[in-house]
């Protein structure tokens, strides 16, 4: 559900030598958005990633540089040639299935599995998730002996954000303030990704379960449209209106932020030594 923020930080990274997108059933949305932003990631099956990394680490600099973001490709070549000792940065993005939050245990199992997969060839991993109902609250403790450092989406107080809504609003405190200012009636928060995926789908790919729709949304009075300044989902306005109309909710608009994604990504990149 943080696909937009991930596309934003990756497309804006001028230090990337290589961007690899793991080919799976969930890569299409991020691939489309990166392409629209001028970034062309290498699409590689998971079991092929280690071989690609070994091959590229053994190549000369010009051979490593791929046209990731064509609008700054030449500048990047020049910068790298000027400083050959500057660490090479490679990022491997591995998307997970949407709708995992419908089951706390499912979130934990899937994210833990992805961490083990990625740790085989990474020296650090940025978990683009919040604590998600505390299902991921023990990640650092559970993986403290992994040998691969984990980084998280953290707010200005250093706290891991609660979920994708907290990340979009600028942190846990901003989320809490929004809840306090709700004036009584429940508010359902919609980012562009939430708004584009709210409709009922087969149970194993549902964003909102039928049970949630029937039991809980009738308790809400508002649909909050969170504007983070990212416009990769062109039907955001329409999707919010359709959602509000379907559940008879009043639309309110909230100013969002990209700073959590930006700062967390930069923190994870610091002191990287050429590994993913």
Structural notes for this entry:
This protein has about 280 residues and is of the alpha/beta class. Strand 7 (about 220-225), helix 12 and strand 8 (about 250-255) form a beta-alpha-beta unit. Helix 1 packs across helix 2. It folds into 2 domains: about 5-160 and about 260-270, no CATH class; about 170-255, no CATH class. It contains 13 helices and 8 strands. Mean pLDDT is about 80; it is low at about 60-80 and about 200-205. A 3-stranded parallel β-sheet has the order 2-1-3, with no helix packed on it. A 3-stranded parallel β-sheet has the order 6-7-8. It has a two-stranded parallel ribbon with strand order 4-5.
Question: What keyword list fits this structure?
Answer:
alpha/beta; 2 domains; about 280 residues; 3-stranded parallel sheet; single chain; about 40% helix; globular; about 15% strand
How large a portion of the residues is in β-strands, by DSSP E?
15-25%
- Spell out the helices and strands N to C: HEHEHHHEHEHEHHEHHEHEH
- Evaluate the radius of gyration: 20 Å
Shape annotation: globular
Number of helices: 13
Got a strand count? 8
Amino- and carboxy-terminal Cα gap: 22 Å
Based on secondary structure, the structural category is alpha/beta
The overall pLDDT average reads: 81
* Count of distinct structural domains: 2
Strand numbers in spatial order across the main sheet: 2-1-3
Largest sheet: 3 strands, parallel
State the low-pLDDT regions, or none. Answer: 60-82, 202-206
What percent of the residues sit in helical stretches (DSSP H or I)? Answer: 25-40%
